[in-house]
Write a structure and sequence with these properties.
about 70 residues, mainly alpha
Length: about 70
């Protein structure tokens, strides 16, 4: 663990050309994953839309059970 901390501390503060290439590639990956996000959000909306009626039904049955007693 201490060796790793020393290695990180010994790195130069200015970015090397390879670091710049890495960060550009990383930004490209983030941009590509941003195109996936709308479909993921659509999936989440569909899942929550399917869940809400079930939630309402369970509330209705619980309230009907409470009033029947």
């Amino acid at each position: 663990m201490t060796d790793r901390a020393v290695n990180i501390a010994d790195k130069p503060a200015s970015p090397s050309p390879t670091t710049a290439k890495y960060s550009i590639a990383r930004l490209a990956n983030i941009a590509a994953s941003a195109n996936i996000l709308p479909s993921l959000l659509g999936t989440q909306r569909a899942l929550s839309a399917n869940y809400r009626p079930l939630e309402r039904r369970s509330r209705k049955t619980l309230s009907s059970l409470a009033t029947s007693r």
